[in-house]
Amino acid sequence: MTVNIPALLIDQSRIGSIVVIDANDDSTMLLERARVWTIREEDLDWSPMWLLHSAVGKHGFRWIATPQFDERGRVINAISMDLQDVADFVTFLEDTTVVDSLPELSVDDLGRRWQEWHTHRASSPRFLFSEEVIKRLYEREQSIEDGLFFETPRVQSLEKEVQ
Amino acid sequence: MRVHSGTVPVRFYSQFFSEWGRLSPRVRHAFTALLEMLQADPENLRAAAFFDVHERQGRDPIVAFALPEDFVVYLTIRHWRPNADVKPEPTSIDVLAVAPPEKIPDSPMTTRTW
């Protein structure tokens, strides 16, 4: 049994793993030359940003597909999804206790909880740029413009510099 | 047309050192991954998850990126314009805040603290 879950699909044959399928072009091509990444359960701690960075930067794909399997486990269909959907889904995994209960969840259960979360989230306003936030950001920007900043050419060295 | 090449330096507001210590390893990891991506090419922001742009007349826009644990990083990319046909070389990425939006601390001190 399959359920369309944007971008990522829990493969019940490998409980606890998430399978990401490369879909560089269109879903038809995907079926012929799919590459499968298995993200280990312990790596679910990756942030959405890191996952996307890894996907785009390392593996070079921009589209990820939702595969559908038949009863014998063969891929019978795939729907390309863009990266925003991937990000949404990973955030869903992080924001809920779904990851903790993956072994017990059916794909149907997962799909239902995804839909509930997505519906709730879509109705929840986000305040990334409220008036108060903008005010404080302007103050910090002024601080930098006044020369109160430090600079690093490579962010990888940040931890060392802070120490 | 884009003329960017090389690595864009990152500037941090003066109190970032003290605030960095309060970030979890998970947030730090996501933050540095994001910055590395932007340093390599600011145009990479289009591939990032959950970003929003606050446009400003005649000034560089402020860009917000969602990080784990409800944190958001706010930054400006100097001389970068999201919709310009010709994109000049960005001179720096200025990190303004790394905090949940409702928990951005008060204005930084106005004297050097390091």
Task: Kindly list the characteristics that best describe this protein.
heterodimer; A: alpha+beta; 17% strand; B: 114 residues; five-stranded mixed β-sheet; 2 helices; 5 strands; 18% helix; disordered C terminus
Order of helices and strands of chain A: EEHEHEEHHHEH
Number of strands of chain A: 6
Distance between the termini of chain A: 52 Å
| N to C succession of SSEs of chain B | EHHEEEE
> What quaternary form is this?
heterodimer
Across the major sheet of chain B, the strand order is 1-5-4-3-2
**Structural class by helix and strand composition of chain B:** alpha+beta
Distance between the termini of chain B: 40 Å
- Give the beta-strand count of chain B: 5
Sum up the overall morphology of chain B in one term: globular
Name the helicity range of chain A.
40-55%
Q: Share of helix among residues of chain B?
A: 10-25%
Give the overall pLDDT of chain A as a whole number.
51
Mean pLDDT of chain B comes to 76
What structural category do the secondary elements of chain A indicate? alpha+beta
Count the helices of chain B. How many? 2
Radius of gyration of chain B: 14 Å
Q: Uncertain spans of chain B, ≥5 residues at pLDDT below 50?
A: 1-5, 110-114
Q: Ranges of chain A with pLDDT <50 over ≥5 residues?
A: 1-70, 73-84
Strand content of chain A: 15-25%
Helix segment count of chain A? 6
